[in-house]
């Protein structure tokens, strides 16, 4: 989501991360470093690794590049601000100009702007908001985000420009959950019965309400957005077009960026960063992504069930060297289950050092004392040998697997790196059929530890695929979820992080940075953690 | 002839069914399914279960197979799970793109091969012959992706003569008529060469061999004796007979026109069948995978049938 409203300029440096939010529009002060007058027109060509599968968010599996394009075409009620470092995200106006809670906090009323129109000229009204809610809640549509609306009972149209959200309970993320999902056109899409949504191609009936609209889409080739002259919010984009080119091959993306065929690559691999930096026509914009990587130990496996063993493994892996080697300095060491860039992060947590002696001592305490003829640690005759799986699509993880293998070999542990096809890998992960694996999660701006760290519930398929289970953590996570006051929930989150770091259900490896490669002649771009196209309206071509 | 045709068509139908069945079994046995796309901590497990139910993945495979077979027999290949559109629509978009690329590539392969062989036979075992043999064997030995990358490096990055990828330039996407066609032609050149150049050597080798055989036949000698020029004896008399084995080769290449070359399509970002099927396999888009396989099998059957018929027409000794 992006922030756009002309609120106060929030520029904050926090843990070495600079995020500027709510940038002024065209009328405001131009950024200090650019002295020239922004020019109207031109196009930016962006590489896409795979084509979008849909432009209807409620058919989507939620891939971030797809989401970014949808966000250029459809409005949300509010703009989420990039201030999640300080507190749960705040919101600025977008389709809604203002909002307020009732006394008991169970009714949230939005006042919509009256000049908003769809690309076919029909006004955007409260009816569209109510229709969108019915789409989000409908089981036949089967939106991936259906559960987000669990605590919203109903959306009521008060008048064409006022809607009321009725909640069944009071909790900290009410605003965020109400805002989740883009508003879609009732007059155009309401004609499609819900049971047909999954198998309907919405492009022929695409009606949008964003700064850009769809000009053409040649599947697996090119998707072209053009500036929508009827866009109702300020500022209007300078750019005439954004062109997304499907280029599956990463090296082709980079080569075309260097020859100027394309202007922007959204994800540059760390090892290629220097090559791009050396090019005088290009620059790299880096910002902390919300993804963090780890070695997952299967906590159900007797091999990893003992907390001392897991701690020993973490102590025995030279994490700092691994992360620095593989990420070339574009990632930092992760410490616990909450990203260090989040407001809920516990800053008193201690990084586990690289300490093979202590690791060996812990292993011996847990019964791993003897060594067999090959020098492998054994306990009751069983050697310490396991597979470390990783998906074939990710070469960085292949490198990490080898480093983990060599570090643990020094402790007498045999690691067998196991490369797997991506879907097969995910299937093994979800079913718990693995010893250990390398994986990363991309976190939302909402801090909710439930799906990853609460004990996997009886109805299987929880995202806690490692089978971590600590009743104390379960209790605290539930408590944090209920606590409407974030400064009070912070205390609870701090405690949860301490326990999880103590338990080391996984070995925390890295928090990565996203590297965007962009043509230097594009000016005004403020690319940050909220999104690559955060302030797309203000991008323009310099001389 | 009619009975032969009916028998062949019947056998073809059985083959298509067999291939579809084996594909179905393989896809069902492959680990994971479409819901693995939802691997995001924000998406609750319930969403995956809902998707499984919606796609019918919660039903046992015999039921899924029976439903698919019933629909397919009636010409309904269902909807692509990844694209939210009819399988036939998705394939219908990709096939012409592949057809254009692979068809022109095949044309270059055969045309170039024939031309090379004729040049070689002007002075068999001469310098030119040996040089072309060496070159065509080397080209044949090169993997297509290497040829593609070399072409890209030389003629797109070093010498920016041709576009490095896609069917159209961004401007071409928004044009119509002739300018759009010219843009397409410009984009076709490198990938067509990448496809054609490796096979060209093989065609030349085949043809050179059979032309050499034919040339020493009595009928060619007889033609010369009746006063036909060397050139005429070669082109009008020996060549048609030498081309016969090529018909089989071309017939066997026909499926390639539909299935395309994954490597070339990925390197040149060409939106053809190769890419569509690759994405379908990775994403476990079962209906699209099955539909594409059926289409490719039909192409194999049709290719062989066409080759046999063409053979019968070209060679009066063959009776169907």
List the helices and strands and how they pair.
The complex is a heterodimer of chains A (543) and B (320).
Chain A: E1 10-14, E2 17-21, E3 43-48, H1 64-73, E4 78-80, E5 91-93, E6 96-101, E7 107-112, H2 126-137, E8 152-159, E9 162-167, H3 174-179, H4 186-189, E10 212-218, E11 222-227, E12 241-246, H5 250-259, E13 264-265, H6 273-278, E14 282-297, H7 307-316, H8 319-327, E15 331-333, H9 356-365, E16 370-371, E17 377-379, E18 382-383, E19 385-391, H10 395-409, E20 414-420, H11 422-431, E21 436-442, H12 450-453, H13 471-482, H14 486-503, E22 506-519, E23 522-523, E24 540-541
Chain B: H1 2-29, H2 45-54, H3 61-73, H4 87-122, H5 127-141, H6 144-158, H7 170-173, H8 177-215, H9 218-225, H10 230-242, H11 244-259, H12 262-267, H13 273-283, H14 286-314
Helix pairs in contact in B: 1-14, 4-5, 4-8, 4-11, 4-14, 5-8, 6-8, 8-10, 9-10, 11-14, 13-14
